[in-house]
Design a protein that fits this description.
8 strands; 211 residues; 14% strand; eight-stranded mixed beta sheet; L-fuculose-1-phosphate Aldolase
Length: 211
């Protein structure tokens, strides 16, 4: 896509996510990597529901602001993901209710904090590691993200929310929506006995639909 088309797509999906209640206030950010390596990212202190194409920030692969409004203060961890995932062309980071609730729980195993409940969860998200808490804007978060991003399409920031990458913005949005719905299932099921996908079923899905 051309840059103006990507800017329009960011506006479109920002409004969709805001309308669905997955984004609120000025929380969350979206980005897309262009073929020349530059990044289009939503501006700081902006609402995803009320963006215009000209507002969208453009930064270099090193994070230098090139054009548009000032970029999100969290753009640095988008850059960290792109550096580790050459196949990724877009990132969605939101503070949706059920995913954030999941990030606030204590987990014995932080390498994967979602139980394997559905096929589409495995296909679109894969394993979901939980990263330690960092205050918003703390650049040390980028190092933690780099350690995880290469092997995971999605990760969860403790007491914060998910980072989800995709081959396109639509792919990343669909994966994010699947993550939020799976987190919702976790809380709906609660402590009831649950039928998890077997290791064999997960292996079969991973072979057929690699992340």
């Amino acid at each position: 896509m051309k840059e103006d088309e990507l800017r329009a797509e960011i506006v479109k999906f920002g409004a969709l996510l805001y309308g669905r209640g997955l984004a609120h206030g000025s929380a969350g950010n979206l980005s897309v990597r262009q073929e020349d390596g530059t990044i289009l990212v939503t501006p700081t202190n902006s609402s995803l529901g009320f963006l215009s194409p000209g507002q969208i920030s453009k930064v270099s692969a090193e994070g230098i602001h090139l054009v548009g409004d000032p970029p999100s203060k969290e753009a640095f961890f988008h850059l960290a993901v792109y550096q580790e995932r050459p196949e990724a062309s877009a990132i969605v980071h939101l503070h949706s209710t059920h995913a954030v609730a999941l990030s606030c729980l204590c987990h014995e195993d932080t390498s994967d904090v979602l139980p394997p409940l559905t096929a589409y969860q495995i296909m679109r998200i894969g394993r979901l590691p939980l990263l330690p808490y960092f205050r918003p804007g703390d650049r040390k978060l980028a190092d933690a993200v780099r350690q995880i991003a290469g092997g995971h399409k999605a990760m969860l920031l403790a007491n914060h929310g998910p980072i989800v990458s995709g081959k396109s913005l639509q792919d990343a949005v669909h994966a994010y929506e699947e993550l939020e719905e799976t987190a919702k299932l976790v809380f709906l099921i609660g402590d009831r006995p649950v039928s998890r996908l077997t290791c064999e079923a997960i292996a079969d899905l991973n072979e057929a639909f690699p992340n």
